[in-house]
Amino acid sequence: MINTFFIIWFVVNLLLLAYVLQEYILVFYAFKGRRKQIVGYFDYKEKVTIQLPLYNEKYVVQRLLDAVTKIDYPKELLEIQVLDDSTDETTSIIEQFIQEHPEKADIIRHVRRPDRKGFKAGALQFGLEVANGDFIAIFDADFVPDPSFLKKALPQFGKKIGVVQTRWSFINENYSLITRAQAIMLNTHFSIEQLGRSNAKGFINFNGTAGVWRKECILDSGGWQADTLTEDLDLSFRAQAKGWKFRYLFDVKSPSELPVTFDAFRTQQFRWSKGAAECFRKNIKKLWRSSSNLGSKLMGTFHLLNSSVYLLTLLIMIMGPVIYFFQSKKMIDIEGLEIMLSIGLIVFALLLVLFFIGTIFCASKPIKSILYYTPSILVFFAMTMGISAFMVFGVIEGYLGRRSEFVRTPKFGAMNEIFQKVKSGYDYKKERSLALLEFIFLLFGLFWGYVGVKDLNPIVIIYSCIITGGFSLSLFFKNTTFRSKAI
Q: What are phi and psi of 133, to 5 degrees?
């Protein structure tokens, strides 16, 4: 029985190792093709529509409008669609902004729908049907685009280019260890995954914001559809399966805001993870029936399976301390045990190096990033553990085709007011409560902490700290900002 348990643990680690190794293939391509993008010629005769999909964004909408209306582009060729589904003060803030800036009123279209059918995808499609632009730029509420955004992105549209995506940067990355931990994950995505896939000519994805679509590409690919929680990933794969090409601009940064609480992070990750599983279910056949080469299809398959890593993570974290306890008591009787046991440490080491590479790739201050890396990565592992049960439910629901409502990530804007905003109940709908299950996992982590200390087993202690830390965040500190003073 114990040997069977060990074999299952080993197989799960092998699956995670396979995923990590394909990430290192992307590292190779990211370095191989690393070069600054050359800005091409663009005669600025094409009409551009900027879409701003909003739902109850009272804390950031003013900042967004200020930034977007300063984007440098001929006024007669520019249209700004404020796709406003809000039910709070956001609508009045938008109306007031338009009244206070009459010189910009002729390019701003305040679009209100009768209902929120289709959520973000529905709003984007609604706006697309009346958009004047041949190119469609999209920004979420928490973004602060640079005035030069269009002049950097539009020249990249060559023949058959359907999307130009820019890299996210983070205006509040240094706010707390919670935000630093998230930045590690996202910087790795935008440096290694997006850049690596792009250089390898694989499928990449429009990240839902901070990018520009060719309108013809959206229409040719079936438009925005609301049958997944990640409408951006869905349309990206449908478009590339039809032969459209995407271009990724690593060197063009689009500033944005990271979630400042664990609860907000969990809400965001649930939507992304479940949505990715829904996209796998919907698009995997389209991918393999496309004319793309075998390498692109394999790369795209791993891409769509990204969220399944949470299934492996939860299994490994639950089984890991048990396995190393059995090993310390010599209760596992398998030939080559010591070699097989090393797979867990190998995977862990490879992940540490992978995220370190991603962090340094995007770092504006490498020395500072290195100093903060160790505490940040430990918090990231704990946060990943803390959301894992939640994510597993979402991923399974996604593969089974069970639909759920699009739940936006709360954005808080000015960091010096964050405590009051969180405390005042900037409410958003939660998917479910798993408090009882998470409490059981917390007790599980505490138990193995006791065992690890009692037996002086450092590996078991490390597992315990990650499990206990993660589920403590989820249960007791989900709305804590971990910041003692304003920045």
A: -75, 150
CATH number, domain 40-194+202-257: 3.90.550.10
Specify whether the CB–CB gap between 329 and 32 falls below 8 A. no
pLDDT one-digit tens code per residue, 114-124: 999 999 999 99
Q: Which residue has the tokens 């709003």?
A: 123
Beta strands across the sheet bearing 211-214: 108-112, 78-84, 48-54, 135-138, 211-214, 161-170, 245-256
The domain ranges of the chain are 2-27+307-476, 40-194+202-257
Token pair 């279209």 is found at 109
Tell me the average pLDDT across 466-483. 93
Question: In DSSP terms, which residues pair with 245 in a beta bridge?
Answer: 161
In the numeric block, the tokens 């040719």 are attached to 220
From the list 247, 184, 167, the residue with the least C-alpha distance to 213 is 247
Q: Which two tokens stand for residue 236?
A: 């990206």
In angstroms, rounded to a whole number, what is the distance separating the alpha carbons of residues 183 and 170? 8
Quick: pLDDT tens for 131-157.
999 999 999 999 999 999 999 999 999
Q: Alpha-carbon torsion 117, 410, 195, 22, what sign?
A: negative
Q: Which residues contact 82 (CB under 8 A, 6 or more apart)?
A: 52, 54, 65, 94, 108, 109, 110, 111
Give this prediction's pTM.
0.93
State the Cα–Cα distance between residues 36 and 70, nearest whole angstrom.
25
Q: Any idea which residues carry the catalytic annotation?
A: 85, 232
CA distances, 79 to each of 46, 85, 104, 132, 321 (Å): 11, 19, 10, 7, 57
Q: Each residue of 198-237: pLDDT tens digit?
A: 999 999 999 999 999 999 999 999 999 999 999 999 999 9
Reference 428, options 403, 410, 406; nearest CA is 410
Q: What is the DSSP letter of 192?
A: I
For residue 81, list its beta bridge partners: 51, 109
419-431 b/e with 16+ CB inside 10 Å = b? eebbeeebeeeeb
